[in-house]
Amino acid sequence: MDRVRLNSRLADVVPYDPKYLPAQHMLSANESPANLPEDIRIEIRRRMKRLDFNRYPDPLANELRDLIAATNGLERGNVLVGNGGDELLFNTALAFGGPGKKMLNCPPTFSVYEANAFLTGTEVVNIPRQPDFHLDEMGILTRVAEGDIDFVVLTSPNNPTGQLVSETFIRHLLGATDALVLVDEAYGEFSRTTCRPLLGQHKNLLILRTFSKAFSCAGVRLGYLLGHEEVIDEYLKVRQPYSVDAISQLVGCTVFEHRQMFSPAIMGIISQRERVMEALRQIPGIRVYPSDANFILVRVDNAGEVWQQLYDRGILVRDFSKAPMLENCLRFTVGAPQENDALLEALRDILGGGNGGY
Ligand code: PMP
């Protein structure tokens, strides 16, 4: 037959597109500007020589789970490793969502949460952020009090807007509901805060972290969850058995064992972020939203054209100007100092009233 019947449920689904175009300065995907330190890469190559490529990997990546658990004062059963945070987010929708289930979401935020909800038939209950992108805390508490929310996703710091969720609020919410509260700390290392201390008292708290940002491993695909064993066990029911391959496990263990080596780079990004935010505030026409992450969201007139002019100068940033609640917004990853200089110089050139300015 020369026909195929497609699933009409997917007719309007637009595939996720990170708009990852080649550029001299890649400031669009919130990656680390630095590759893994050379010593770690040497150690990875050494360990790779002993890898049995013919064997399936440990389905649960237990060696890495144990390392992560010990560092966080937890047990193996409190940790789950996934093929990037993305896989664990999808598994969250599978395990806690589905037809008849409800996810509370706080847009504008990471669009993958809503996409996963759609794919799993989960209803999305949106409690939009305030104009300054802080959470509508009262709105969330009031909605959760209705008792029908199955899971809540809070992103701290939030992507793409940069704000932290207050620990007081998380504590309050956890006490007010038995819904799962997933706190996505993908950018947590850049905020120097975590709600990890709350795990002991709250079975319904789950924390997501990733190796992709502070640990220079976006290319490897590794993320992990910290939570109560009863919650982690639910993920074991839905996860793909071998989603974390042997190479990723090996890289993850090596990186995690050497994680102190990343502290100077993390501190460097934080200080660059403060410098870039301050410099952006001096450029006329740009509104800068404060950030605790490794990126900065700005609002600027004609953002789509500014994006193009930056790209023409070899700088790729993320254009959110057509996204709901993010009209005229661009997101800049904090890069290496010279990349940040290139971005600032280009913006001054584009917006500063010189040739081609607005
Ligand atoms: N959460 C947030 C808020 C993110 O921005 C990202 C990556 N863009 C992820 C989770 C997933 O990251 P990864 O799959 O690379 O671990």
Question: Please, could you describe this protein's structure?
Answer:
This protein has 358 residues and is an alpha/beta fold. Helices cover 35% and strands 16% of the residues. The protein is built from 11 helices and 12 strands. It starts with 24 loop residues before the first strand and ends in a 7-residue tail after the last helix. Mean pLDDT is 96; it is low at 353-358. Residues 84-86, 110, 155, 159, 184, 186, 210, 212, 218, 223 line the site of 4'-deoxy-4'-aminopyridoxal-5'-phosphate.
Write down the overall geometry: globular
> Total helix count?
11
- Number of DSSP strand runs: 12
Bound molecules: 4'-deoxy-4'-aminopyridoxal-5'-phosphate
Order of helices and strands: EHHEHEHEHEHEEEHHHEEHEEH
Q: Are there runs of 5+ residues with pLDDT below 50, and where? A: 353-358
SSE-based structural type: alpha/beta
Regarding quaternary structure, how should these chains be classified?
single chain
- Gyration radius over CA: 21 Å
Largest sheet: 7 strands, mixed
Average pLDDT, all residues: 96
Strand content: 15-25%
Q: What is the strand arrangement across the widest sheet? A: 2-8-7-6-5-3-4
Residues in helices, as a percent range: 25-40%
Q: Whole-Å distance between the termini?
A: 57 Å
